[in-house]
């Protein structure tokens, strides 16, 4: 319990900054929606002259951005990127911080098993990503609802936040497993972020070229896309199952390799 509380305390400032960032992203996005919708120009017509490649990079896709839910679907990819980057870095740093801060020896001589240590660390990381998800959910619910003009948005926001949380968990254990496996775990955070950005680039490439759609199983950003979960009938069982298997497998990898780690002080 002491390790769990210590980890929560050590990451609270970072969590506050990320929470503020997410909140400001939702605020700025919905303010932009308000200004565009009140301009008098049809919002979808503004996109017609843009090349497909730019629309894919921006994550606009097939959204009807004249509606609050459609615009939120556009905004969601940026919220998802922020949340998953936070999760990947958190998963890596919460494992690697003892080497970074030169406190490995102090931690490992305590009368706590390594399984107990990693359980406490992952539990603290879980609480952090849960709080960030809740902040994103509440901010989205309040601000999107404010500009929805009577449109029902709660269900769409709930389902996207559920998808986001699964991906947060996935990238958290990607980060933690990399930190546990790597001999120099201090570089795990940058490597985890690199993996995240690579999978995002793959998802953009799939949007640009339908012939490589089979690669969607290799990029988590295709598992719970807003256009599918909001307007396509909810979650696809295959992706939920695949996410669960990956999360479980990478959690096991984290435990196994963390137990084998040498002290690098």
Topology:
Elements lengths: L1 H9 L1 H26 L14 H7 L9 H33 L3 H5 L5 H33 L7 H28 L6 H21 L17 H4 L7 H23 L6
Describe it for me?
The chain contains 10 helices and no strands. The chain is mainly alpha-helical. The protein has one domain (2-259). Helix 3 (52-58) runs antiparallel to helix 8 and helix 7 runs parallel beside helix 10. The protein starts with a helix and ends in a 6-residue tail after the last helix. The mean pLDDT is 84.
Alpha-carbon Rg, integer: 20 Å
Mean pLDDT: 84
Low-confidence stretches: none
H-E string? HHHHHHHHHH
End-to-end distance:
24 Å
Principal-axes shape call: globular
Structural class by sheet pairing and helices: mainly alpha
Relevant terms:
single chain, mainly alpha
Concise summary:
This protein is mostly helical.
């Amino acid at each position: 319990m002491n390790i769990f509380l210590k980890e929560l305390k050590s990451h609270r400032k970072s969590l506050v900054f990320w929470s503020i960032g997410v909140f400001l992203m939702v605020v700025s996005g919905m303010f932009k929606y308000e200004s565009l919708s009140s301009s008098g120009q049809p919002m979808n017509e503004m996109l017609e002259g843009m090349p497909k490649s730019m629309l894919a990079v921006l994550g606009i896709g097939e959204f009807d951005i004249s509606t609050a839910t459609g615009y939120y679907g556009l905004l969601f990819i940026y919220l998802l990127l922020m949340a998953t980057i936070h999760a990947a870095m958190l998963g890596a740093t919460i494992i690697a911080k003892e080497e970074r801060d030169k406190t490995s020896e102090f931690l490992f001589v305590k009368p706590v098993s390594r399984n107990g240590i990693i359980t406490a660390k992952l539990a603290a990381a879980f609480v952090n990503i849960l709080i960030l998800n809740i902040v994103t959910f509440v901010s989205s619910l309040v601000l999107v609802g404010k500009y929805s003009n009577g449109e029902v948005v709660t269900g769409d926001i709930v389902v996207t936040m559920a998808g986001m949380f699964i991906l947060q968990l996935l990238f958290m254990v990607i980060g933690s497993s990399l930190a546990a496996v790597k001999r120099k775990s201090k570089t795990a955070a940058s490597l985890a972020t690199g993996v995240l950005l690579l999978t995002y680039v793959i998802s953009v490439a799939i949007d640009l070229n339908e012939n490589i759609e089979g690669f969607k199983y290799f990029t988590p950003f295709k598992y719970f896309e807003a256009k599918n979960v909001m307007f396509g009938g909810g979650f696809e069982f295959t992706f939920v199952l695949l996410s669960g298997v990956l999360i479980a497998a990478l959690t096991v990898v984290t435990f196994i390799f963390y137990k084998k780690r040498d002290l690098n002080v």
